[in-house]
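ARCHIVE CARD
SHELF: 3
SLOT: left
DATA:
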Amino acid sequence: MKKLIAVVLIGAAIWKFYPREEVQVLTNADLELMDTPYFNLANSPSSKKSALSLRAKYACDGRQHCSQMSSCSEAKFFLHNCPNPKMDGDRDGIPCERQLCGN
């Protein structure tokens, strides 16, 4: 009987002091940090100018394939700004590698 009580007490002590993974509570300060991008390249002056000039030059009009593009810059614009492009088969970020943007 003493052994049973000792085992139960040891088990209870282990249960009480066993390190558990605690759930962290997010505060408003944490949420503000999560919304702030680590690298803010989009706000650099050169990227704003180039993005604006590309938007003025090209528009998403439903084209999705390399055969519908006339230049590498147009294909890159469609790949990065338009929905459902089908120009980057190997998903490396370079569109139309065989036709327009090849080496």
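SLOT: right
DATA:
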Amino acid sequence: MAVRVTSQRCSASFITLRRYNGQLAGKDIAQTACEKSAVSKPSTEARQNNRKYDWIGPPDPVSNIRQVHFKVSENEAPHEKRLREERAKVQEWSHRFWKKHNTSFVQLKGEFIKQKLAEKSASRETTVTNITLTPDEMSEFYKKFLDDNYQAHKNYNWEWYKKNISLTWLTLKVNLLNIITRRNKGNK
């Protein structure tokens, strides 16, 4: 299922998403959140305790992973708590990997550019201040970086698959237990 998320700018720092018949209604909820935040701003603790939905934050400036603040249900069962905690662990694991990876990428890219620019300026007879690198020259760096990090990317992907299969299994288990619980309450 393709998901289209429309973001809205407002004083609220998170957008909540709600599903209606399988469709996301993020825009309407974001507008409501913006309107409510303009009227009054309850404390952070009060907002976290009264949340009905997960909060999706802006992308982290380094990892580019959107932080999700998972809702805590009022009557959260142990299996629901385990699922929420596992989702948070997977998110944190992914965030740490991409933060480390992207930091390394930016650092190595900067070193490569400095080195290539120094080589270019040394080979010229006159001093030119606006020397730049061509896309072909930058492609050398990108290829080398991908080759050097091939195994790390492969390991990340395998771990990601395993973690998401585990989360899918836990989600199925939680949903089945919730259906059984609702049926048992309905029969009483």
